[in-house]
Amino acid sequence: MSTALQAQTHLHRVELPSKDYKDDTTSFWCAGCGHYGVLTGLLRALSEVGIDPNYLVSISGIGCSGRLPYFVRSYKMHTLHGRAGPVATGVQLARPDLNVVITGGDGDGFSIGGGHMPHLARKNINMTYILMDNHVYGLTKGQCSPTSRKEMKTPTTPYGGVEAPLDPVLYMLTYGATYVAQAFAGNVKLASQLIKDGMEHKGFAFINLLSQCPSFNEMDTAKHFKNATAILDDSHDVSDLDAAMHAVNMARREGREPNGLLYKTERPTLDQNMAELVKNVGGHKDYDLRKIIDLARP
Fold it and tell me: Among 43, 183, 186, 276, whose CB has the most other CB atoms within 10 angstroms?
C-alpha cells in the first residue's frame, strides 16, 4: 500500500462503541449458538480498531454463518455458496482502501469453497477471514461437514462418518496465510483480540473460531470446546512456522484445541504487487504490452 493510501485509510478511523456497529436487523440464530459470540467479538474488534462503517465491507457465503453481515453496519454482500473469497478478492483489489471481512462456515470455506482457500492465502490478499467452525452443516439440519468428527452420527451418516476431518488451521499454515489464529467463540475476549489483530495485519488473516451448534451437534458443545481449549503460552514463537505446526499437532494428540495466535509474518500483499506491476508497465493508461511480456519472461 502506498504512503498516500495508508494516510487516506488512517483518516477513515472513527471512535464508536461496539453497539454502534450493530445493524438494526435482529440476529436470528438458534438460542445458544456460538455464532453470537463471533458477532460480539467482531463488533468489539471493529470498535477497538476504529473502522469507519462506511469503509467496511462484510462478505459471506451460504450457511448459518452467511447471515452475519446482516447484523453489522457496513456494506455487505451475501454471495453464492463457497464464493465469498473470489468476490472479496475483487472488492479488495478494486478498493484497497476498504476493510474487507469474510465470515464463513466450515462447509462454505472448506467444502464447496475449499478450492479458493489456497489462493486467498498464497496471494496474501489483504483481508480478514473469520471461519465460524461448528463441525456440522447447521442450516441444512445437521449433515457432516469437512470438520466433523468420524464418530458423530447425523441423519445422513447414522452409523458415523467414514472420512477423516480436515484441520482448517493446519491447512492455512500450509497454504501460506500470513496470519493464523484460533479461539473458542465463547471466549469473546480472546476472539475479539485475535480479530482485531487480524484486521490490523497487512495481508491474509485467517481466524478459526470454534462455535458450538446446540441444535444439530451434540458432541462439540460449548462445554466440549471450552474444556478442549489449550491456550498458547508466551513462549510460543509466532514467527516460526514449524513451531506453529508443532503446537497444533501436539494439541491434537492430546485431544485439545490450540487457542491464540499461532503464526504471523509479513510479505507483500496482492494489491501491492499489482500496483507495482502497473507502475512498472507505465500505469493504467498507454501501457506497453511488450513490457508485460518481458516482465513475465524468466
Answer: 183
What digits encode the pLDDT tens for the residues 266-293?
999 999 999 888 888 776 665 565 665 6
Query: What does pTM read for this prediction?
Result: 0.91
Give me 281's grid cell.
508497465
Distance, CA of 130 to chain centre: 3
**Superfamily (CATH H level) for 3-267:** Thiamin diphosphate (ThDP)-binding fold, Pyr/PP domains (3.40.50.970)
Reference 250, options 264, 234, 262; nearest CA is 262
Please compute, for residue 177, the number of CA atoms within 13 A of its CA located in the half-sphere on the CB side: 31
Distance from C-alpha of 170 to C-alpha of 175, rounded to nearest angstrom: 9
CA distances from 67 to 50, 61, 135, 238 (A): 23, 9, 17, 32
Q: Which residues are CB-neighbours of 164 under 8 A, at least 6 positions away?
A: 150
**In Å, how far are 133, 148, 161 from 52, measured between CA atoms?**
27, 37, 45
- Cell of residue 171, nine digits: 491447512
- Alpha-helical runs (H) found in the chain: 3-10, 35-49, 84-94, 106-110, 117-122, 168-175, 188-200, 222-228, 241-253, 270-280, 289-296
Per-residue pLDDT band at 7 (split at 50, 70, 90): very low
Q: Give one DSSP letter per residue of 61-90, joined into a string.
A: -SSGGGGGGGGBSSEEEE-STT-HHHHHHH
* Domain assignments of the chain as residue spans, ordered by start: 3-267, 268-298
Cell numbers for 164, please give them.
477423516
Residue 158 main-chain phi, psi, to 5 deg: -65, -15
Question: What span, in angstroms and rounded, lies between the C-alpha atoms of 42 and 39?
Answer: 5
